[in-house]
Amino acid sequence: MSIERVRRHIDEHREEALDMLKDLVRQPSVSAQDKGVKECAQVLADLLRRLGIAAEILPTATQPIVFGEIVRDAAAYTLLCYGHYDVQPPEPLDLWQTPPFEPAVRDGRLYGRGTGDNKGQLIAHVLAAHAWLEAAGGPPINLKFVFEGEEESGSPSLAGFIRGQKSRLAADLVYISDGGLHPSGAPTISLGNRGILGLTLVARGADRDNHSGNKGGVAPNPVWMLVHLLSSMVDPTGRVLIEGFYDHVRPIGATEQRLLATMDYDPKAFAATMGLETLPMDGPTYWTRIMLEPYCNINGFLSGYVGPGSKTIIPSTAECRLDIRLVVDQTTADILTKVRRHVAKVDPRVQVLARGFGTMEASRTAPEHPAVGVIADAIRRCRGVAPAIDLASGGSLPNAVWPSVLGVDHIGVPYANADENNHSPNENLSLDRFYDGIHVSAEVFRALGDAAARGALPRRAAR
Ligand SMILES: [Zn+2]
């Protein structure tokens, strides 16, 4: 059977695979500092070509995208693998045991900036494709690779790039490997993420601080303005009171209910990771709140005087920062309009400033999507355990571009060890996880090919 030959090829070429990852890690590619990114695109494109994959470097307004493909029959099922070859800044350098761009193996791990996030994970797909080419004449599905060079800087050009290259990127599913496994080492399938809308509310009173005795009751107090406004926005249980806020929130379906009930939960242990004694809720409530419900958070409040002694003033300004976490089908534009309308009604003196940076849309693939079960089976065959299904991460990621711009669902399967130290000194990728990742990709390609041949997978609309 071809998968046996593919597996053997992967096992017999571990050293070469590791050397290729080292070459990639050796080339710095820090998008935040524009250091070596374009050179890294070149290294990566050359690597793809050496592995028999047609590759091009496609420019964007900012950093280039490395695009590769293996397409034998344009009508066949097509998987688009997305990853990013840029890395976080390596600083502080003195905390690294070995230099960040000099890959080094210690205790079964490869150390270096970008080993886990995301170079080791993206080339796992490439190496799996190569194994299929060498051992079986080619993968059982079409493969497209989109590797961007500025994910760590908020992917400013990705949506525009996809919009401009829609026919070239046409695919049936987007597959993403980023982040780590569960700390137990158990595999996970990740179906989406919450969005985020960052806002600043500014209230102004007089043009200077005033004496709170001499002017108290006469001069307006901007702190009270914000306190009243905020309490009109969210009730004490956390329910958002802004009109229409929940209009587009998707009801929780039967499959989601079932998955929520099986999710790992330990109120004491989970509370400890947050610095709390315990959590006063059950598992399904905990996971529903994090994955499937929006939340309006106050992350900063600045006004008046809280230094030593006292200063009896009516402050002249008050400022409050919010991050509103949104769920799939809520959009940042719609929620921003609703917040502005609410503020205009309750206290038009308060200014609403939207912070563009860091704003991201929510996105979530339904757990009933047939590819979820197919990929879960593939992972089980490789790793010997069924993966946990993560309906969505509470945090925000740029996944929404796939359904909203390309019109394709996305499924994530992280390959790195949980303690990969991504974004931190001594980033590393366990060699076992790296080789497992290549096997998982190879098996996923096969499983999708089989399922597509049975007509068991949804296909993109006719081109
Ligand atoms: Zn990262």
Automatic annotation (TrEMBL):
Keywords: Hydrolase, Metal-binding, Protease. The keyword Metal-binding applies. Gene3D superfamilies: 3.30.70.360, Zn peptidases (3.40.630.10). SUPFAM superfamilies: Zn-dependent exopeptidases. One of its GO terms (molecular function) is peptidase activity. The keyword Plastid does not apply. InterPro entries: Cyt/Met_Dipeptidase, Peptidase_M20, Peptidase_M20_dimer. Residues 192-349 form the Peptidase M20 dimerisation domain. It holds the Pfam family Peptidase_M20. GO terms for biological process: proteolysis. This is M20/M25/M40 family metallo-hydrolase. It comes from Candidatus Segetimicrobium genomatis.
